[in-house]
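debug: dumping io for the single-chain case to check the tokenizer round-trip. Nothing else runs in this session.
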Amino acid sequence: NLEVTDRQKSLQQLNCLGFDSKRDKNSLVIKEIVDEDGEPILSKNRATVDHLTITIEDPRSRDVGKYLCHRDVPHGTGSGQAELIYEILVDYKSAESLQAVV
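debug: decoded output
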């Protein structure tokens, strides 16, 4: 889990979230690799990347319809998305309060 931000502290116990996924087939990605001397270097490559954007959809919230967060899905779709969504719910202390997904 990521370090809790002030925004996460103010946006907790959410009960309705929107999820939108997208696959970019030619995204620029930067990876840290280790050269033959053991030194880390940054390598630019093109790769397929799955993204997940989450919005606040709780009609009682003053933030309804606003962006909550964006994450890259590390293991594509399906179970990788499910694991990431659960991590986001935990980060925003909403795993128990979530009632709907749109």
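debug: round-trip ok. The chain has a mean pLDDT of 85.
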